[in-house]
């Protein structure tokens, strides 16, 4: 994945951080360039630079 490869704004995605093996479900916020976890008890965001890979969630 190249740094220019980012999801569409508001897209539902699965993503994996560079420092973890766990995949998380979330939404991508293009304005803030952050991934927001959607199944977290608290608001949890992840910086674009911390993500190793991502893929769209098929609806």
Count of DSSP strands: 5
Number of helices: 0
Low-pLDDT runs: none
Proportion in β-strands: 35-45%
Oligomeric state, counting identical vs distinct chains: single chain
User: How do the strands line up in the largest sheet?
Assistant: 4-3-2-1-5
Percent range for helical residues?
Answer: under 10%
Give the overall form. globular
What would a concise description of this structure say?
Helices cover 0% and strands 44% of the residues. The chain is an all-beta fold.
Topology (SSEs and partners):
Layout lengths: L11 E6 L5 E7 L4 E4 L7 E3 L3 E6 L3
Antiparallel strand pairs: 1-2, 1-5, 2-3, 3-4
Overview of this protein structure:
The chain has strands at residues 12-17, 23-29, 34-37, 45-47, 51-56. The mean pLDDT is 92. It has a five-stranded antiparallel β-sheet, with no helix packed on it. The protein has 59 residues and is mostly beta strands. The protein is globular and about 25 Å long.
Keywords for this entry:
59 residues; mainly beta; five-stranded antiparallel β-sheet; single chain; 5 strands; globular
């Amino acid at each position: 994945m190249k740094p220019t490869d980012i999801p569409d704004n508001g897209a539902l995605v699965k993503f994996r951080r560079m420092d973890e093996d766990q995949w998380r479900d979330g939404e991508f916020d293009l304005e803030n360039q952050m991934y927001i976890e959607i199944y977290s008890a608290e608001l949890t965001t992840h910086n674009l630079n911390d993500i190793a890979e991502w893929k769209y969630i098929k609806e």
